[in-house]
Amino acid sequence: MSHRSIYEVIDNQLIIHLPKQFKNKMKVLVTIDDVTDSTATKLLLLKQAATDPLFLADVEAVRNDFSPIDNEG
After folding, report:
1. For 49, which of 41, 43, 63, 70 is 20 to 30 Å away at the CA?
2. Which residues contact 31 (CB under 8 A, 6 or more apart)?
């Protein structure tokens, strides 16, 4: 069972109220990821992909694969 949520850090502390499904669980795995840095990194990678020749070639290949069915509507 897993639960994923974004929490606010206040005064360098984090309080997590577990969902009811976790009642009587003795251990949980907590992974901390800086949302701001992750988002900024992902946006940078997306911007780089827009000019990456290999990525653009892959997009074109997928577009060509699906072009025969694009007008089936």
Report:
1. 70
2. none
